[in-house]
Design brief:
Layout lengths: L16 E5 L4 H12 L3 E6 L2 H14 L4 E6 L5 H11 L6 E4 L17 H22 L5 E5 L23 H25 L5 E5 L4 E2 L2 H8 L3 H13 L2 E2 H4 L1 H8 L8 E4 L7 E3 L9 H15 L6 H5 L1
Parallel strand pairs: 1-2, 1-4, 2-3, 4-5, 5-6, 6-9, 7-8
Antiparallel strand pairs: 9-10
Helix pairs in contact: 3-4, 4-5, 4-10, 5-10, 6-7
């Protein structure tokens, strides 16, 4: 990849189709916009229909020639994930950007009873990717980009208590576990695609410290106004803008010669141009990634079928 990679390096994407989760704001919006700007047809997968519609209108205003479509997707509800995949049923899918997520929320459960951060950040995207796998396998050069975080280093997954049913809930540890799960998923998916002989690329990215509404959501839910002000100040003074925070995911999605299981982030750690990023050794542990995969299939009821790659 280019030494100072930026959006000018994104190639022509005319004829390609992309799905971006959480595309109504922040990193997801910028990612969707830049893919559309280069000619891709982009599905905006958004939980809130009204916010999604506002984002779509804004994107059209910024990129009048954009080819976009708004679809409702709630990653915290497996019924919504299944409905989204069934209604979309794409004949081809070049890019799946697993971007949406929640951060450091107070203890909550998804519609299916999973701990909210693990359920949304990992299980929702695990199910979505599996359900869209046939379209990915049928599209030459397709990529799955899963957005993790530098804060995955806070904690590895706990295979004995994935849903915080037996231990005291700690929001930042839960967040770290969910982001480690993203990287373990990327690792295991890359392994299984290689075994199937598929050229679909599984890679991960993280934005560093980017100013989005992700940081303030948890404290706002609890009415912690002082903490919300502190976080908002950090976003203004320290964080890089979403325009820059989205670059690692865009790089992972479009840069040539990307290697399977790569982890792309700001070269400065929190800020800077995209490059290969540090990741905790546990996120490449084959035993853990395989066990998490098995548990994820059991919890979601979604089993991956790689036979299309074999037939191709």
């Amino acid at each position: 990849m280019a030494r100072r990679w930026n959006t000018s390096h994104i190639p022509d994407l005319t004829g390609k189709q992309a799905v971006v989760t959480g595309a109504n704001s922040g990193l997801g919006y910028v990612t969707a916009r830049e893919l559309a700007r280069r000619g891709a047809r982009v599905i905006l997968a958004c939980r809130d229909k009204d916010r999604g519609a506002a984002a779509a209108a804004h994107l059209h205003a910024e990129v009048p020639a954009s080819d976009i479509e708004l679809r409702t997707l709630d990653l915290a509800d497996l019924a919504s994930v299944r409905a989204f995949a069934a209604d979309l049923a794409p004949s081809r899918l070049d890019l799946l950007i697993n971007n949406a997520g929640v951060m450091a929320l107070p203890h909550r459960r998804t519609a299916d009873g999973f701990e909210m951060q693990f359920g949304t950040n990992h299980l929702g995207h695990f199910a979505l990717t599996g359900l869209l796998l046939p379209a990915l396998l049928g599209t030459p050069g397709a990529r799955v980009v899963t957005v993790s975080s530098g804060l995955h280093t806070l904690a590895n997954v706990d295979l004995t208590d994935l849903n915080y049913e037996h231990h005291r809930y700690r929001r930042w540890v839960a967040y770290g576990r969910s982001k480690s799960a993203n990287l373990l998923f990327t690792h295991e998916l890359a392994k299984r695609l290689a075994r199937a002989g598929s050229d679909v690329l599984s890679v991960a990215a993280h934005p560093g410290y980017a100013a989005t509404n992700l940081q303030t959501a948890g404290v706002r839910m609890e009415g912690r106004t002082r903490a919300e002000r502190v976080v908002a100040l950090g976003n203004r003074v320290i964080a890089q803008p979403a325009e820059v925070g989205a670059l690692p995911a865009l790089c992972a999605a479009t840069a040539p010669h990307m290697k399977p299981d790569a982890f792309i982030g700001p070269q400065g750690g929190l800020r800077g141009a995209p490059g290969l990023s540090f990741r905790a050794p546990w996120t490449r542990d084959d035993t853990t990634s395989d066990a998490l995969w098995t548990a994820s299939e059991q919890l979601t009821g979604v089993t991956y079928d790689f036979t299309a790659a074999v037939r191709a």
